[in-house]
Amino acid sequence: MPHVYISHSGADPDALLQLHEALRAAGIADRYTTGEPERMGADTEISAAFAVIVLVSAAAVRSRAVRQDVETAKALGVPIIPYQIDKARLNGFFKTEVQPLLRLSSSMEDGLEQLIAETQGAYRRKCPVVAVMNLKGGVGKTTVSAQLSGAWQEVNGGRVLLIDLDPQYNLTQTFYSMEAADASSGVDRSVISLFERSRLHAKDAASPAENWLSLTIAPFTPAPRDSFVHQILGEDGPPGRLDLVSGQFEISKYAFANDRDALAAIKQHFLRTIDHYRSEYDLIVFDTNPNATFLTRCALEAADRVIAPMHADIYSLRGVRLLNLVIRDQVEEAKRPALSVLFNAVNRNEQSTFEGDARNGVYDQIAGFPLSKSLMTAALPRSAHFAVKAPVDGQPPWRQLLVHAGRGGGLKAIRDSLKQVALELKNLSEGGGSGH
Ligand SMILES: Nc1ncnc2c1ncn2[C@@H]1O[C@H](COP(=O)(O)OP(=O)(O)OP(=O)(O)O)[C@@H](O)[C@H]1O
Ligand SMILES: [Mg+2]
Question: Which of 92, 140, 209, 293 could be a cystine partner for 250, CB 3.0 to 4.6 Å?
Answer without folding.
Answer: 209
